[in-house]
Amino acid sequence: MSSGSENLRGFYSAMGEILSFLEDLKDKLNKAEVDKMVGMLVEAWGWGKIVLIVGAGRSGLIGRAFAMRLMHLGFRTYVVGETITPAIGPNDILIAISGSGSTAIVVTAAEAARKVGAKVIAITSFRDSPLARLADHVVVVPGRTKTAVEQDYFSRQILGIHEPLAPLGTLFELGTAVFLDSVVAELMYRLGKSEVEMKYRHAIIE
């Protein structure tokens, strides 16, 4: 077993890869795709439409963080699977996050949303994935290099199928977190919202 700085070779290699990926991300995103997503959210805010977020595993956690920021901006936003999440209807929005675009629970949610006339925004690494084919709009966030053998997140957990530490989904998830936080900044600008105003909606019981 190695000791000292040798133990951090993996750490520094992963950090370098992640930082390099994030630095290049802004040039890899399609500006038209980003602009259309922001425009759809601005329209939903103006009409008081519901914005639902769905994702599994780490993608789901990133989706929850985005939902919180949307709430701070005054959106009617919820996370799929929570007991207080209402039904959605025509022209409401479902933001579905899946690096592979094949995660069963996310694809199923997109199918259900389409059936009631809601708009689906897919955030994925694969434009030709089942999720992307269902979506009204797709934003491709690179990072996923291949898909897991078992696409259903919960099946992977039950079967004990886990992915490697840093590659594969990690870059997609971190890239999506940075992308969505940047979307929040653009929404603040377009909606004329300040951090002071957002603070009034921040939880005071935690």
**Pattern of helices and strands:** HHEHEEHEHEHHH
Tally the helices: what do you get?
8
- CATH fold-level assignment: Rossmann fold
Q: Ranges with pLDDT <50 over ≥5 residues?
A: none
CATH superfamily: Glucose-6-phosphate isomerase like protein, domain 1
Average per-residue pLDDT, rounded, comes to 88
**Given this structure, which CATH class is correct?**
Alpha Beta
Task: Give the helix level as a range of percent.
Answer: 40-55%
Which of globular, elongated, flat, extended, rod-shaped describes the shape? Answer: globular
Overall tally of structural domains: 1
Based on secondary structure, the structural category is alpha/beta
Instruction: State the distance separating the first and last CA atoms.
Output: 43 Å
Gyration radius, in Å: 18 Å
| Assembly state (oligomeric) | single chain
Biggest sheet record: 5 strands, parallel
For the largest sheet, list the strands in their spatial order: 2-1-3-4-5
Q: Report the β-strand fraction as a percent range.
A: 5-15%
CATH architecture: 3-Layer(aba) Sandwich
Number of extended strands: 5
